[in-house]
Automatic annotation (TrEMBL):
Pfam families: ABC2_membrane_2. The chain crosses the membrane at residues 65-86, 119-138, 158-179, 186-208, 270-289. This is ABC transporter permease. GO terms for cellular component: plasma membrane. Keywords: Membrane, Transmembrane, Transmembrane helix. It comes from Paenibacillus mucilaginosus 3016. GO terms for molecular function: ABC-type transporter activity.
Length: 294
């Protein structure tokens, strides 16, 4: 029965044309990104001299790859996040308002099966879309610049890139149990924006010399936002894995070059926190849905 609900979720996403619109906008972005990555590679090649293959030229090509991937995944993380948010923000309240949910629940399917089935449908579509977008950005960048060639880093990068999907779907469906579709959509957008703002503050704080009065308050605010919404921190860790920061930090003079791009890189303990955050939001959503009266 749960498989049937997953299939219904896929059909609903196609019927509402959310996924179709996302794919069209993604195609437009990838076309623009192709020319942008080529432009960055041309600048790096010209700075190194015709035919030069010394260390400076390799570093310039690597920097071009870093810039291309940073810009590409900046857009990609936004699109993936908003696909997860706007596909699931009305999963419960929207169907309750239209009467669809009241017609489905009396059938021989438990509320837990219905909720998990909907969650699985949203997450699987998001993961598939994330895999396509992740591969496209890496492929385009690899055609124009130097990117890490370790398949293990690609796998780690994709898992971190796509981890925002179950996180946001879990939080969005939980909010849908308590708020209207419009209210939950606004709340989810504000939470995601808060996480992004915390990431920007963290990047700015990483460039402030130690001992400055403004450093500690900025780090505190960034830390609170990162705990409320881990999405941006996961994106920064994903870029760090792709760039192999720990392996090339000495060549790039430590954090002087890469630190201003990524800020403080989230630790493994933070990844465990993000995983627990997702699991708690999913479990809380199931409990709230089972207890709600329709």
């Amino acid at each position: 029965m749960m498989i049937t609900i997953v299939g219904m979720t896929w059909k609903e996403m196609l019927r509402k044309r959310v996924l179709l619109l996302t794919l069209i906008l993604t195609a437009v972005f990838l076309l623009a990104f192709w020319f942008l990555a080529g432009s960055l590679r041309s600048d790096a090649a010209s700075s190194g001299g015709a035919g030069a293959r010394d260390l400076t030229t390799l570093m310039d090509a690597y920097r071009a790859g870093v810039m291309s991937l940073t810009l590409g995944f900046f857009f990609g993380s936004f699109v993936l996040a908003f696909l997860a948010i706007f596909s699931s923000f009305s999963a419960v309240s929207g169907e309750a308002e239209t009467g669809v949910l009241q017609a489905l629940l009396p059938r021989p399917v438990s509320r837990t099966q219905w909720y998990i089935g909907r969650w699985t449908g949203y997450v699987t579509v998001g993961l598939l879309y994330g895999a396509i977008l992740f591969t496209a950005i890496l492929t385009i960048t690899g055609m124009h610049a130097t990117v890490p060639g370790d398949p293990a880093s690609w796998v780690r990068g994709y898992l971190l890139f796509a981890s925002v999907v179950p996180l946001l779907v879990s939080l969005g469906m939980l909010g849908s149990c308590f708020f209207s579709s419009l209210g939950n959509g606004v709340l989810m957008t504000m939470l995601f924006g808060a996480g992004w703002l915390g990431g920007m503050i963290e990047k700015i704080a990483s460039g402030i010399p130690p001992g400055e009065a403004a450093l500690k308050p900025m780090q505190t605010i960034a830390g609170i936002f990162a705990l409320l919404m881990p999405a941006d921190s996961l994106s920064r860790r994903m870029l760090a894995e792709l760039f192999s920061v720990s392996d090339v930090s000495e060549l790039f003079d430590g954090n002087l070059t890469l630190g201003t791009t990524l800020g403080q890189i989230p630790s493994n303990a933070y990844l465990w926190y993000a995983a627990a955050y997702t699991a708690v939001m999913l479990a809380a959503g199931v409990i709230a849905f089972r207890r709600r009266d329709f």
